[in-house]
Amino acid sequence: MVTRIVDLRSDTVTKPTEAMRAAMAAADVDDDVLGTDPTAELFELELAKVMGKEAAVFVPSGTMGNLISVLVHCEVRGSEVILGDNSHIHVYENGGISTLGGVHPKTVKNNPDGTMDLQLIEAAIRHPADALYYPTTRLICLENTHANCGGRCVSVEYTDRVGELAKRHGLKLHIDGARIFNASVALGVPVHRLVQAADSVSVCMSKGLGAPVGSVIVGSKDFIGKARRLRKTLGGGMRQVGVLCAAAYVALRDNVRKLENDHRNAKIFSDGLKQIKQLTVDSTSVETNMVFFDIVDSSFISPEKLCQLLEKHGVLAMPASSTSVRLVLHYQISESDVHYALTCIKQVINQVLNEVGQNGGA
Ligand SMILES: Cc1ncc(COP(=O)(O)O)c(C=O)c1O
Ligand SMILES: C[C@@H](O)[C@H](N)C(=O)O
């Protein structure tokens, strides 16, 4: 009988706090499609200010935030976007920019730290004056923190250099900032400075910040005007959305300060995993709330099997590859939960080792 749940599958699993639920219940609402929901307006103004941009629009998900941003920047037929081959937009968003927006993705290899070599980005750019048979590059996308690169932070210096490169070539820069507040806290750089070079940012309120639903796109007034219209086209126009914005407002107010503790717990987890000889973890890559670890010999236990056995102890995690597992820390995971999960991982590995009759143990 499982009496304790430690959910490390993702920071998308965070549930609304009592303060969020109270704010949702008390929210002053009206019809946001008619532009009159006061709580939505208040929250959008606040987030635009925090991010240092002119305007903002609330959207149901980070996927829609990225989709709308790419499609507004690439509204001319035959447009191409340069993005990481391991980016969330390219890997986990159903190819929406192409299937719904007709935008052509031009991938550049992501480095382990989440960046793309500037020379490779520049080499990938295709200009309108180029050969008739080329698409035209109109946008570069970055991701900060970078989820598939272990939640690594992209520095403000690198972001600024990509912004300069984009401007030099008449391109726009979008940042998938699903976890931009994690990057800001880990780098010690104010979030508005971190995204200063970007023309648009999609910010998730529903991950480490803990709101139940939603993301926000920030950018210029003109850009957000087009984004709001495209949101409606995509069926994302919401009526009394102030109920959700009220929770997002509380998340912004209360939970940014909790991110540092998530990063601390990730480090504690990573250090504990290093003590288990059947596992390897690159602790230098643990910069924020994610920990990826490899099973040294996945022939004795696969990531899927390990996650299945851990679930019997109430520890929930997700395989990241055929040899690795991803753990994501969030403010509903305590340090005690971290130590409990580590104990369960050791127990499961010893259990399997005993079953296969091997010597040694975790
Ligand atoms: C880096 C990144 N971008 C975008 C998204 C999409 O957000 P959503 O799940 O709200 O569509 C996610 C994950 O959820 C993500 O990890
Ligand atoms: C899986 C992915 O879409 C999600 N953003 C996560 O990190 O959990």
UniProtKB/TrEMBL annotation:
Assigned keywords, A-Z: Lyase, Pyridoxal phosphate
Organism taxonomic ancestry: Eukaryota, Viridiplantae, Streptophyta, Embryophyta, Tracheophyta
Entry protein name: low-specificity L-threonine aldolase
Annotated InterPro entries: ArAA_b-elim_lyase/Thr_aldolase, Low_specificity_L-TA-like, PyrdxlP-dep_Trfase, PyrdxlP-dep_Trfase_major, PyrdxlP-dep_Trfase_small
Organism field: Iris pallida (Sweet iris)
Obligatory cofactor(s): pyridoxal 5'-phosphate
Family (UniProt): Belongs to the threonine aldolase family.
SUPFAM superfamilies: PLP-dependent transferases
Domain Aromatic amino acid beta-eliminating lyase/threonine aldolase, chain residue ranges per copy: 7-294
